[in-house]
Amino acid sequence: MQLVPKFTYEKLARDESSGRRLYRTPGGHALSSVTTILDATKSVEAKAALQAWRRSIGDKAAQQISTESATRGTIMHSYLEKTLLGENPTRGTNFYHKQAWDMAQVILDNYLRPNLTEVWGLEASLYYPELYAGTADMVGVYNGRPAIMDFKQSNRIKRDDRVVDYKTQLTAYLLSHNAVYGTDIDRGVILMCTPALEPQTWVLEGAELEHYKQVWWQKVAEYYQV
Q: For residue 89, which phi and psi values (nearest 5 degrees)?
């Protein structure tokens, strides 16, 4: 894995003064984040399913699960980023750090070390002019082709129908990279691991990618009520 700073990903400032997560672009525009748009355009069925889950286990337990997942995911991302930057991080001593370390090693051993040849950027700030912005976990060359990549943790193995938002999010990043940097990236890669150290991956390309481009633009139109 070689660090190749092919592009300069200028970090976008966050602006949450309005109660929404906005990013300020180099031109000064305040743009809604990809995740904000996804949350605002969730289907009625998806919202009902989430509410039903919270009711089934109680708000306190649901919040605890969400907090633990977010904590584990943040630490796992940190270990992966530091490793890819060549910093040789050491395993933390508390439970979440140990768990996240092991999950990061699974992603590295199963996917990144065998398949990743170039890292163009990590935590890459991206935006589509005047429409949206966000942060991709990694941009680089995976299996010989440029790709936008995201690292995910999950409490359990996921079915394909449970990663629709992840694929849509990845597509939004891909479109913004191509629009701003003049690239023609046509592959998105999701790399996931569970606390039980079960790896999963999805490669988004071809007809499926074209489908998710349509899904994303429909959500953008719905969000802005075009």
A: -65, 155
The domain that holds 158 is classified in CATH as: 3.90.320
What integer pLDDT is reported at residue 75 of this predicted model?
A: 94
As a whole number of angstroms, the distance between CA 27 and CA 44 comes to: 36
pLDDT at 134: 95
- CB proximity list for 121: less than 8 A, separation 6 or greater: 5, 6, 7, 9, 136, 138, 139, 140
123 is in which domain, residue-wise? 2-224
Tokens, residue 147: 């790709």
User: How many domains, in total, are found in the chain?
Assistant: 1
Which residue type, as a one-letter code, is found at position 66?
A: S
**pTM tops 0.85:** yes
Helix (H, G, I), strand (E, B) or coil at 80: helix
Nearest partner of 213 among 162, 175, 178, 187, judged by Cα: 175
